[in-house]
Amino acid sequence: MDFIVNVAPAPNEMPPAKTVDGKEVPIDPEAPTSLFVFKTTSEHHVGDVLYFKVMSGKLTENQDLINQQKQTKERVAQIFVNLGGKRDKVAEMYAGDLGSTVKLKDTKTGHTLTEKGVDWKFPEIEYPEPKFWTAIKAENESDEEKLASILYKLHEEDPTFLVEYSKELKQMILRGQGEHHINTMKWLLDNLYKIPAQFVPARIPYRETVTKPAWAQYRHKKQSGGAGQFGEVHLVVEPYEEGKPDPTGFKFPDREISLTIKGKEEFDLDWGGKFVFYNCVVGGAIDKNFMPAIIKGIFEKLENSPLTGSFVRDVRVIVFDGKMHPVDSNEVSFKLAGRNAFDLAFRNANPKILEPVYEVKVRVPSENVGDVMSDLNTRRALIENQSAEGRYTIITAKVPLAEMDRYSTTLSSLTSGRGTYTMRFSHYAQVPPNVQDELVKKLSEQNANN
After folding, report:
1. Domain topology for 353-433
2. How far is the C-alpha of 37 from the C-alpha of 28, rounded, in Å?
3. Beta bridge mates, 375
4. For the whole prediction, is pTM greater than 0.90?
5. pLDDT digits over 76-117, tens only?
6. 208-350: which CATH architecture?
């Protein structure tokens, strides 16, 4: 701290702070009051403690300020000067001072507070992307809800620690800056919050698609006492490609199909990719009012693929024929018929598993390039570029997410802690055939156990 006091410039010697819209705010005690909240901690008997910098003006006890993110009023009842874990209550602070306060309703890390009539909003802190991820679950199922609440609280204290529940993967996913970062969080859970938890491998968000056209038909028929159920659907499944012309017909070894398009619907899927549906039924074989039910049945399979239970993307489905019953046909019948016909056709359309691929940029000391490159090659990496940056080398590669497990730990070991990397999602790509065979078996077992 003495070094900072002696060497670093005083706040009033720094350039003016800038708001998100580029306006300069001078560090001036005579200017309107504004604060920037840069950190939050939680204390058992106190609640949230918010740490701030007075960006301009003068702050006093019981001063009313406006939260610029929420547009709500906050009363700063008490202000403190901090020294480690010690807080000394003070009556006022001036531009450039660091302090803390408690019992604010809506204010979080990264928020700006200003006096009324001022619309300044300071840029939020840009945190590094997480480099390590794992799944976590409470040892006792009864603690799951409590565990999630505490993890979200830890995220508020440390925004570089991310937590989310993935409905797709059915796991609570933790992301952090490294294995030690995540282990620190677990230590807090075990020793401070007394909730035993386990780390388990995070599942990979695979996708599935088809690589050739295939057709199938399915008849749903059920009779039990009163009104029965009847619906029959004939359809084709084929790959979707951007700019591909609408289908006019298909020639299969066992059937030739000519098409007349009566309707077309395109869906941008929440998990990426597209689903295109064609109604090519002629002669009233299926009433058009049953088409939404068929689409609904297909969507159930798009969300739970026939092969591994993953999401399906980039497919076109053409319903070209079927049958109805004047009494027993209803929406449920055609939903089930559509779902099962899609299942059969999908399995015959040479389905492929797609895996998420990330662009990884690794910054390593030049003397460690060989070891790092060898390790990346074992992770099915496609090396795209190398460039020099002083005594360091930047390696750019495309790497499947499944191969990046615990990479931060490995890179630290290979470079004695001097290597760093960033990664961002690039695209989905087909997995190699030998990897797909292993995945189908593994993912099918996982789904059977869920």
Report:
1. Alpha-Beta Plaits (3.30.70)
2. 18
3. none
4. no
5. 999 999 988 889 999 999 999 999 999 999 999 999 999 999
6. 2-Layer Sandwich (3.30)
